[in-house]
Amino acid sequence: MVLRNDQWERIAPELPGKAGDPGVTARDNRLFVEAVLWFARTGAPWRDLPEEFGNWYTVYTRFWRWARRGGWERIFKLLSDDPDLEYVLLDATHIRVHQHGSGAKGGLAIRRSASRAVV
């Protein structure tokens, strides 16, 4: 599980589908949120969602509905005052120097210093 119990307790009252809400009561909001976090963490396609989270298409459809109704935005705002920076990773291995910054077109021109001119 990715969500700690204290985080879950903070967001659970804000989630749609709880008892007392109009419409169908959600079977397991926590499992669904964990499935979405798995997807976000791995970057895998929806079809690769492990079976323990349920049918990938059902999870995707529910994710899309929540996004359309602003459910994820409410959760992010609720948790944004408690950032967990444990897994922050900045990767710059794909960044390249611009061609002008690397001395392109023949390399760097090395010239003698004016102070070292022969007298």
For the residues shown, what is the average pLDDT?
Answer: 78
Integer-rounded radius of gyration: 26 Å
By DSSP (H or I, 4+ residues per run), the number of helices equals 4
Structural class: mainly alpha
Q: How many strand elements?
A: 0
The percent range for strand residues is under 5%
Helix content: 25-40%
Distance between the termini: 76 Å
Overall geometric form: elongated
Low-confidence runs: none
What is the succession of H and E elements? HHHH
Question: Can you summarize this structure?
Answer:
With 119 residues, the protein is mainly α.
Main attributes of the structure:
single chain; 119 residues; mainly alpha; 0% strand; elongated
Explain the overall architecture:
The protein has 119 residues and is an all-alpha fold. The protein has a domain at 5-87. It contains four helices and no strands. It starts with a helix and ends in a 40-residue tail after the last helix. The relative contact order is 0.10.
